[in-house]
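1st attempt posting a full record on here, be nice pls
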Amino acid sequence: MRLRKIEAALEAALEGVFGRIGGGQLHPIEIFRALWSAVEDGCIVSAGATYAPNRVRARIAEADFENLHGVVTRLEREFAAGLQDEAADNGWAFGARILVRLQPDASVRAGTVKVEAMLDEGPIPALLHVETGPCAGQDFALQPGAVLGRAAGCDVVIPDDAVSRRHCRFGWLFDGYQVTDLGSSNGTSVGGRRVSETLLADGDSLTVGNTRIAFQYDTRGAWNE
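the predicted structure (as tokens):
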């Protein structure tokens, strides 16, 4: 069963975490199984396609959460990767990525997990981190429809003479953010390849004019507390 292979991969990736969980305490694999069960139960079939939940929140007892102190963010990342691998292997669509959040909850009994899973087609918060050029070091929060360019009226203003006044636009699709060149003089490149339009992956490097920009998802900002 592929799920067991994913659990084995999680154990290998988080060996140090698993080793410190004592008997009678909530084990990370138990959390992952609860997450996967919620994803399975939450799948929706529409127009011949199966859509898996992409926002999965696990609430655990405060004591169990404290036992995971210092590794929660890493667990969230590994759990999300495992869920994505299994969903993709089943041929299920889930959009840009599956997001996992672990939270303490005083109403949850120790050793148990309460999971909420939903399909959200809305945009994941993202930012553009400028690595080179006149705005080096600056971060710009990205919104669907945002236009990057040299003109003052743009949503993301880059005062680089090699950047066109309206250089490119960022749009949101179910599968993630897409960048579209707006007929700029010097073009838009992603990963060193000039593009007219392409879907962006987390960590992609964009070049506009003499400016290099890193595209990053802000997964923690995707949750409404």
